[in-house]
UniProtKB/TrEMBL annotation:
<dbReference type="GO" id="GO:0047388">
    <property type="term" value="F:[glutamine synthetase]-adenylyl-L-tyrosine phosphorylase activity"/>
</dbReference>
<keyword id="KW-0436">Ligase</keyword>
<protein>
    <recommendedName>
        <fullName>Bifunctional glutamine synthetase adenylyltransferase/adenylyl-removing enzyme</fullName>
        <ecNumber>2.7.7.89</ecNumber>
        <ecNumber>2.7.7.42</ecNumber>
    </recommendedName>
</protein>
<feature type="domain" description="Glutamate-ammonia ligase adenylyltransferase repeated">
    <location>
        <begin position="83"/>
        <end position="306"/>
    </location>
</feature>
<dbReference type="InterPro" id="IPR005190">
    <property type="entry name" value="GlnE_rpt_dom"/>
</dbReference>
<dbReference type="Pfam" id="PF03710">
    <property type="entry name" value="GlnE"/>
</dbReference>
<feature type="domain" description="PII-uridylyltransferase/Glutamine-synthetase adenylyltransferase">
    <location>
        <begin position="838"/>
        <end position="980"/>
    </location>
</feature>
<feature type="domain" description="Glutamate-ammonia ligase adenylyltransferase repeated">
    <location>
        <begin position="581"/>
        <end position="816"/>
    </location>
</feature>
<keyword id="KW-0548">Nucleotidyltransferase</keyword>
<feature type="region of interest" description="Adenylyl removase">
    <location>
        <begin position="1"/>
        <end position="479"/>
    </location>
</feature>
<comment type="similarity">
    <text>Belongs to the GlnE family.</text>
</comment>
<keyword id="KW-0808">Transferase</keyword>
<dbReference type="GO" id="GO:0005829">
    <property type="term" value="C:cytosol"/>
</dbReference>
<keyword id="KW-0067">ATP-binding</keyword>
<dbReference type="GO" id="GO:0000820">
    <property type="term" value="P:regulation of glutamine family amino acid metabolic process"/>
</dbReference>
<dbReference type="GO" id="GO:0000287">
    <property type="term" value="F:magnesium ion binding"/>
</dbReference>
<keyword id="KW-0547">Nucleotide-binding</keyword>
Length: 983
C-alpha cells in the first residue's frame, strides 16, 4: 500500500476511490490533509463509516449550489463538521433527503437554531395552520418535508459528538422526548388537515399511547393512539381515519389498535363510551397500556377530560384479581413469540432487552402507585428514578437499570437511523462490519485490549445479563417491607404524644421517627437500655441539625451496623463530645454515615483531645500518606494492596469530612488533605502492581493534572493524570509503551473496582489525542507531540502538571520538558489569548447542565471555580516565562505571586481568592450533604439548609449563605471580566 493509502486507511478510508475523491474535494494534498482541511479529515475519520461519509459528502457538495460556502463552513464550523460528517456516515436515508434539499445544510451550523426550537410551529406552518390549511397531496408533501427536516436536525445533533468529541452529547432520553414532541406536532398538523378536508364541526382528541405518550419515542416507530370524539359519529370517524392516513403517508405509521376492543372496536368513541368500557370490560394489559396515555392533538379540553377520567381506573387496576400474575404472564408470552433466530439479537423484546426494563418498572408503578402519586409518571426513566427515590427499587439497581436502558435505547436509535427503518435487531455476530458501524455510531472506542467490535460485544453481553438479573429480581420477587413494633405499654409516651413531641422538635415525619426509635430501643438487652438513656440527649442534639429525620435514620443505620462492636455505645455514653459531634455529622451529611458503618474506628477521633495534645481530627496528611504506603507495602498481591489502600482511604476520607463539617479545617487544608489521600493511594497501588509485575522494559511515572496536580481535590473529584514511560535495557519504544500501558490499566482497574465508597476514578482524558490517543506514551513521544501538535488548551492543561507517583527522575524530566510549552518565554500572542477566551466561553455555554442556575453553579457559574482558575492560568501563560514565581500549580499561590509580581492588583486577587474559596467550600459541602458529587448549590429546602450548616452558618435562614455566595462570586466575576476577558 502506498504511503497515502496507509494514511487514508488509518482514517478508515479503505475504498480505492477514496484518494481521488478527497483530492478532488480539496481535502487532501500529497500524503496528508490539505492545509485548512485537517479538521475535516479528522472528523471524517471518526464518522461511523468514513467511506460512506466521504461518498455522501461528494454527493452533497455536487448537489449544492453554494458549494464553496459549504466547504468553507466545514473548515471553520466545528458544530457543522461534527453534525454533518457524522450524519453522512450514519444515515443513508437522511443523506438522500439532504441531497434532495441541499440548502438544508445551513440548519446544521453552530449558529442555526438548536434541535426542537420551533419544531412544532414549523410543522403546523407547513400545512398552513393559522392561515389557509392545505389539503390532499399538497398537505402530505409539505408535512413530509417539514417532518424530515426536523428529524434531520435532531439526528445530526444527536450524533455530532461522535465526529467532534468536544461537542455536547445529547442524552438518549432527551432525544426520545424531542421525537415524541415532534410526533405530537405532526399529529396536530394531520388533525388540522383532516378537519379541513371534512369541513368537520365536531370535537376530536388524539390520545398518544406507548412510547409517544411517555415521551420516549424512537426515530422510526409506530405511534399508538386512541381517539375520543364528541359526537362519535361518521364524520368524526372519517376525520380520525384521514388523520391516520395523512400522518402515515407523511411521517410515521399511526396505530389505533390499543383502542377498546382493538381492531374490532369502533375507531372513535365518546368519553363516556371509553369510561364505560374500561370500567366493565377492560383487561389487565389495557390498563398497563393506559399508564402512558397523554393528550397530544385535537381538542385540548376533551383530551384533558379523558386523562382525568381514566387515571383513577389505571391506578386502581392493581387491585384486580390476579393482576400481578396477568402482567407476568403477558411478558412471558412476548418472549415466546420471538423468532428463535432473532432471540439473542432482540434489543427490544428479547431476554435482557428493553421490554424487561419496561415491564418491571410498569408493574412496580401500578402496584405501588395506588398510594404513592410520585410514581405516576409516563416516562420509564422518570418512573425508575421515582421508584428508586421512594425506596421501591434499590438505588444501585435503579442506576444500573437506567444505565442499561439508556444503552439499549441508544443502540436501537442508531440502528433505526441508518436507513430510517423500524428495526430492533443487533447485527448478526458474524456481521463484523455491521457491528463495527454500530459501535462507532454509538460512540464506543477501542479500550486498548479490544477493538470497537469487542467493546460493543462485551457491553452488549454485560447489559443483557444485568437487565435480566434485575428484571427477575424486581418483576418476579418484589421486596416486601416489614416494620416491627413495640407494645404500646413499653413506650414512655403514647404514640400520639410522642409524635407531637417529635413534630415540635423539628421532625418532618414523626411517624417515621417513631419507627426508628422503636427499632433502637426494642428488647431488654443492655444495648437497648443504653439507647433509652442516650436517646433523649441525642434527639435534642439532632433537633439542632438541618435534617433531623435523615440524622435519626443514619443513627439507626450506624447503630445496627455496629451492634456487635462492644465499645460503640459505651463511647457515646461516656464521651459527651462524641455524641454531640456525631449527631451534627449525621444530621448534616449523607456521606458521613455511609463511610462510618465501614470505618467505625474513626468515631474514636471525635472524642475531646487529650490535654496538651492536638485534636486527632486535625492530623497531618503527610502522616497518613506515610502510614498508608507502609501498610500497603506489606501486601503480597495487587488486589490485596488495592483493597487495603481503599480501606485506609475510607478512614482518612471520613476523618477529613468530619473535621471539615465540625469547622476544624480551612478549605485549603481540606483540599490538601484530600489530594494527599489520592496521591498516597495512587502511589501505593502503583508500587504494588510494579512489585507483582517484576522487572520490565520501561520506567513509568504518573503526572498529576487538574485539581490533583494543583493539590485542590474535592470529595467527589476524579484523579486527572498522564502516564509517561521510558524504555530501559535496550527495549524499543513500542515494547516500553505496551508494558507500561498494561501497568497503567491494571492500576486503573484495581482502583475503580466496585465499592460503596465514593469512586476512585483515574481519568487520563487530558492526554494527547484524548480518549482516542494511547494511554501511555514515552517521554520522547510526548516531546514530539507537543512540539508539533500542541493546542493552546493543552499547554493550559499542563500548567497543573506535577509528578505524583512512579519513577521520580522520569517525572522530573517530563516536567522539565514541558516547561517551555506551559511557560513560553515570550508569553502568548493576542491570537492565543483570543482562542483561550473563546474556548472558555464555549465551555461555559455548552457544559452548563440544562436547568442549572449560573449564579450558584460552583464550577461553571459566574465567579465560580472555572472563572478564577482560567484567569490565573491565562496570567501564567502570559507572564510565567519571565516571572518564575508564577510557575505554581496552585490557584491561590498563583494569585498571590501575581500580586507580588505586580501583574494583579491586591484587591482583585482578594476578590478572586474569596470567590474560589467560597465555590470550593460550597462544592465540597454539596458532596458532604448529598453523598454524591454535585456542582449546583441547592435552591431551597433542607438540602440548602444542610449545605449552609456544613459551611458553618447558624440555623435559621439559609438565605444568608446564598447572599454571601452570590456576593463573593459576583465580585469575583467582575474581576474575571476585566482581567480575563478584557472587558
Amino acid at each position: 500500500m502506498t504511503r497515502t493509502g496507509t494514511s487514508l486507511a488509518r482514517l478508515g478510508l479503505t475504498e480505492p476511490w477514496a484518494e481521488a475523491t478527497v483530492t478532488a474535494l480539496g481535502w487532501w494534498a500529497g500524503d496528508k490533509p490539505a492545509p485548512g482541511a485537517e479538521a475535516i479529515m479528522s472528523a471524517l475519520g471518526r464518522s461511523p463509516d468514513p467511506d460512506l461519509a466521504l461518498r455522501s459528502a461528494e454527493r452533497l457538495l455536487n448537489a449544492t449550489p453554494d458549494r464553496q460556502d459549504l466547504d468553507a463552513a466545514l473548515r471553520a464550523d466545528q458544530v457543522l463538521r461534527g453534525r454533518l460528517l457524522t450524519l453522512l456516515g450514519s444515515s443513508t436515508a437522511l443523506v438522500d433527503h439532504l441531497v434532495a434539499h441541499p440548502d438544508r445544510w445551513h440548519r446544521l451550523t453552530g449558529s442555526a437554531p438548536q434541535p426542537g426550537e420551533g419544531a412544532r410551529e414549523a410543522l403546523l406552518r407547513a400545512v398552513g395552520v393559522g392561515a389557509d390549511v392545505l389539503t390532499g397531496a399538497e398537505a402530505v408533501t409539505a408535512l413530509r418535508a417539514a417532518y424530515r427536516d426536523e428529524v434531520l436536525v435532531l439526528a445530526a445533533a444527536d450524533i455530532a459528538a461522535v465526529g467532534e468529541p468536544d461537542l455536547p452529547v445529547l442524552d438518549v432520553a432527551d432525544v426520545a422526548a424531542q421525537l415524541a414532541d415532534l410526533a405530537a406536532a405532526a399529529l396536530q398538523a394531520a388533525h388540522a388537515v383532516a378537519m379541513a378536508e371534512n369541513d368537520a364541526d365536531g370535537r376530536l382528541a388524539v390520545i398518544a399511547m406507548g412510547k409517544c405518550g411517555g415521551r420516549e419515542l424512537n426515530y422510526v416507530s409506530d405511534v399508538d393512539v386512541v381517539f375520543v370524539a364528541e359526537p362519535a359519529d361518521q364524520q368524526m370517524t372519517r376525520v380520525a381515519s384521514r388523520l391516520m392516513r395523512v400522518a402515515g403517508d407523511a411521517c410515521f405509521q399511526v396505530d389505533a389498535n390499543l383502542r377498546p376492543e382493538g381492531r374490532q372496536g369502533a375507531l372513535v368513541r365518546t368519553l363516556d363510551g371509553h369510561v364505560s368500557y374500561y370500567k366493565r370490560w377492560a383487561k389487565t394489559w389495557e390498563f398497563q397500556a393506559l399508564l402512558k396515555a397523554r393528550p397530544v392533538a385535537g381538542d385540548p379540553e376533551l383530551g384533558a377530560a379523558y386523562a382525568d377520567a381514566v387515571a383513577p381506573l389505571v391506578w386502581n387496576a392493581a387491585g384486580r384479581d390476579d393482576f400481578v400474575a396477568d402482567v407476568q404472564a403477558m411478558r412471558r408470552r412476548v418472549e415466546e413469540h420471538i423468532r428463535p433466530d432473532h432471540a439473542e439479537r432482540e434489543i427490544k423484546l428479547g431476554v435482557g432487552g428493553l421490554r424487561d426494563v419496561e415491564f418491571a418498572v410498569q408493574l412496580l408503578q401500578l402496584v405501588h402507585g395506588r398510594n404513592d402519586e410520585a410514581l405516576r409518571l409516563p416516562s420509564t426513566l422518570d418512573a425508575l428514578t421515582a421508584l428508586a427515590d421512594g425506596g421501591y427499587v434499590g438505588r444501585e439497581d435503579g442506576v444500573d437499570l437506567a444505565t442499561s436502558y439508556r444503552f439499549l435505547r441508544l443502540l436501537e436509535h442508531r440502528l433505526q437511523l441508518q436507513r430510517m427503518l423500524r428495526t430492533h435487531l443487533m447485527p448478526a455476530e458474524d456481521d463484523v462490519d455491521g457491528r463495527r458501524w454500530l459501535g462507532r455510531a454509538a460512540g464506543l472506542r477501542p479500550d486498548g485490549r479490544r477493538d470497537v467490535v469487542g467493546v460493543l460485544n462485551a457491553e452488549w453481553s454485560r447489559t443483557v445479563l444485568r437487565v435480566r438479573r434485575l428484571h427477575e429480581k424486581l418483576f418476579y420477587r418484589p421486596l416486601l417491607t416489614a416494620v416491627s413494633r413495640l407494645p404500646v405499654d413499653t413506650v414512655r409516651l403514647s404514640e400520639k404524644a410522642a409524635a407531637a413531641r417529635l413534630g415540635a422538635l423539628g421532625w418532618a415525619s414523626p411517624e417515621g421517627a417513631l419507627g426508628h426509635l422503636r427499632a433502637l430501643t426494642s428488647g431488654v438487652s443492655r444495648a437497648a437500655s443504653i439507647q433509652q438513656t442516650l436517646l433523649p440527649v441525642l434527639l435534642d442534639e439532632l433537633a439542632q441539625s438541618p435534617d433531623p429525620d435523615r440524622g435519626l435514620l443514619a443513627y439507626r443505620r450506624v447503630s445496627e451496623a455496629l451492634a456487635e462492636t462492644p465499645w460503640y455505645l459505651r463511647l457515646l455514653r461516656d464521651e459527651g463530645l462524641v455524641a454531640g459531634r456525631l449527631m451534627r455529622l449525621l444530621g448534616t451529611s449523607a456521606l458521613v454515615p455511609d463511610l462510618l458503618v465501614r470505618a467505625p474506628e474513626v468515631l474514636r477521633l471525635l472524642a475531646a483531645p487529650v490535654a496538651g495534645q492536638a485534636d486527632e481530627l486535625r492530623r497531618e496528611p503527610e502522616d497518613f500518606a506515610t502510614a498508608l504506603r507502609t501498610t500497603v507495602a506489606r501486601q503480597h498481591d495487587p488486589d490485596g494492596a488495592a483493597a487495603t489502600a481503599r480501606s485506609l482511604r475510607r478512614h482518612e476520607l471520613l476523618r477529613v469530612a468530619s473535621a471539615d463539617l465540625l469547622g476544624l479545617l480551612e478549605v485549603d487544608e481540606v483540599c490538601a488533605a484530600l489530594s494527599s489521600v489520592w496521591v498516597a493511594v495512587l502511589q501505593a497501588t502503583l508500587d504494588a502492581v510494579l512489585r507483582a509485575a517484576g522487572p520490565g522494559p520501561a520506567r513509568l511515572a504518573v503526572i498529576g493534572m487538574g485539581r490533583l496536580g494543583g493539590a485542590e481535590l474535592g470529595y467527589g473529584s476524579d484523579a486527572d493524570v498522564l502516564f509517561v514511560c521510558e524504555p530501559v535495557g535496550g527495549a524499543s519504544d513500542h515494547e516500553a509503551a505496551k508494558w507500561a500501558t498494561g501497568i497503567a490499566e491494571t492500576v486503573r482497574r484495581k482502583l475503580s473496582a466496585p465499592t460503596p465508597d465514593p469512586a476512585l476514578v483515574v481519568d487520563a482524558d487530558l492526554r494527547p489525542e484524548g480518549r482516542s490517543g494511547p494511554l501511555v506514551r514515552t517521554l520522547e513521544s510526548y516531546r514530539a507531540y507537543y512540539a508539533r501538535w500542541s493546542e493552546p488548551w493543552e499547554a493550559q492543561a499542563l500548567l497543573r502538571a506535577t509528578a505524583v507517583a512512579g519513577h521520580e527522575d522520569l517525572g522530573r524530566r517530563f516536567l522539565h520538558m514541558i516547561d517551555p510549552i506551559r511557560y513560553p518565554a515570550a508569553g502568548i500572542d493576542a491570537a492565543t489569548v483570543t482562542e483561550i477566551r473563546r474556548i472558555k466561553a464555549r465551555v461555559d455555554e455548552e457544559r452548563l447542565p440544562r436547568g442549572a442556575d449560573r449564579s450558584t453553579h460552583t464550577k461553571l457559574g459566574h465567579g465560580g471555580l472555572a472563572d478564577v482558575e482560567w484567569t490565573v492560568q491565562l496570567l501564567q501563560m502570559q507572564h510565567a516565562g519571565d516571572v518564575p514565581e508564577l510557575r505554581t500549580t496552585s490557584t491561590l499561590e498563583g494569585l498571590q505571586e501575581a500580586v507580588e509580581a505586580g501583574i494583579l492588583q491586591r484587591e482583585d486577587a482578594d476578590e478572586l481568592a474569596a470567590g474560589w474559596r467560597m465555590a470550593t467550600r460550597a462544592r465540597n459541602a454539596v458532596m458532604l450533604v448529598k453523598g454524591k458529587p454535585g456542582d449546583q448549590v441547592p435552591r431551597t429546602g433542607r438540602e440548602l439548609a444542610a449545605v449552609a450548616s456544613a459551611l458553618g452558618y447558624p440555623p435559621g435562614d439559609p438565605g444568608v449563605f446564598l447572599d454571601d455566595y452570590r456576593r463573593a462570586t459576583r465580585r469575583a466575576r467582575a474581576v474575571v471580566e476585566r482581567v480575563f476577558y478584557g472587558w
